[in-house]
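Appendix B: a complete holo record

For completeness, this appendix reproduces one full record from the ligand-bound portion of the collection. The bound molecule is S-adenosylmethionine. The inputs are the chain sequence and the ligand SMILES; the output is the full three-dimensional arrangement of the complex, encoded as C-alpha cells. No fields have been trimmed.
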Amino acid sequence: MLKCLSYCYHFEMPVPLFICPLCQSPLKPAADTWRCDGRLHPKQTSHPFDVARQGYVNLLPVQQKKSKAPGDSQESIDARKRFLNHGHYASLQGLISQKMTELLYQDKQVGDHKSKSVNWLDIGCGEGYYTQAMAQLGLDAIDTLIAADISKPAVVELAKVSKMAGQLWYQQNEQPSTQTTVIYPLVTSAAHLPLRPHSMTGISSIFSPILPEAFAEVLADDGYLIIAKPDIGHLATMRDALFDSVREHDSDKFLQELAPYFTLIDTHRVSTELTLSADDLADLMTMTPYAYRARSEKRKALLAAVETEAFNTEAKFVVYVLRKSSDK
Ligand SMILES: C[S@@+](CC[C@H](N)C(=O)[O-])C[C@H]1O[C@@H](n2cnc3c(N)ncnc32)[C@H](O)[C@@H]1O
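The structure of the chain with S-adenosylmethionine bound, as generated:
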C-alpha cells in the first residue's frame, strides 16, 4: 500500500501535509528537525522546528500562546491517565473506534478514499487514551494520525507511549516491513492548525475545542468530524454532591455553530455505571474542569465519604458524526 509519510505523492508530485506555523510555507518532517521551505516568507526564510527527544514537535509559536503553559496541566493529565487506564470510559473509547472503523474501513475498501491516504487529526488529544485506540485500527482505516494538543505535557506523554510502540513517523521509515498507522504528536493550537487546507480525511474532538471554520479549512471535501461530549445527566451524583444546584448545559448548542460548514449524519449515546474508589474519584475530580469550581468543603466532604464506601455514578456520553458540506 502506498503510504503518506512526510509527503503524499499524487501524480509524482509531492503534496505537503504540514505547513509552517510562522509563514505557512510547506513544512517537511524529518527525524531530527522539520523545516519549511520559506517560499511564502517575504525574505524566503526557512524556519526549523526540532523534534524533541520524546518524539513530538512543538509547532506553537509564542505569539499564538495566550498563557505561559496553555492547555491541561501535568496534574490533570496524570489524573486522567490513571482514571482512563482503569477502563472507566472504555465504552466510549470502543464506540469511537467502532464508528471510525465503519466510516473509514468501508471507504478504504470500496469508496472515496480507496486510492488515497487517510489522514486523521485528533485535536485536543490529551495524553492519547482515544488516539492510541485510533492507531490500533491500523492501515485498513488510517494511514497517518496527527495527535495535536495545545498542552505540552499532554503531547509529551502521548509521544513517549507512541515512541515506545515504534509508531512515530520516522520509526516507520526504519522498519518498512512492519508498517502500521504512523503518529505525529504535535503541540499546536486548534485555532492555527499547521496543516495544508483540505488535507485531512477526518477530525475528532473528544471533550475538546470545536472550531467550525478552522476544521472545515483543513478537511477534505466530504471530510468527517467526530465529536464526543458529556450527555445530559453525566456524573449526576457527583455534581449533586459538589454543587447546591446543578444546571444542565445545552449539549446541542454547538451544532448550530457547525451547521454552516457541516451536516450531522449520526448521533450515538453510550452510558456506563461507575463504582469508584476514593482515588478514582479524586482523579475524576482533578480531570473534570467543573469539579474545580466546587467549594473546597464540598470536595473534602465527598472525598471523606468515599473513604468508607465506594461511590456510584453514571457516565453518559454522546458522539456526533458530521460530514463537511460539499460547498465549503
Ligand atoms: C478535556 S481534555 C480532553 C483530552 C482527550 N481528548 C480525552 O478525552 O482524554 C481537553 C484537551 O483539549 C486541549 N485544548 C484546550 N484548548 C486547546 C486548543 N485551543 N487547541 C488544542 N488543544 C486544546 C487541552 O489541553 C486538553 O488536553
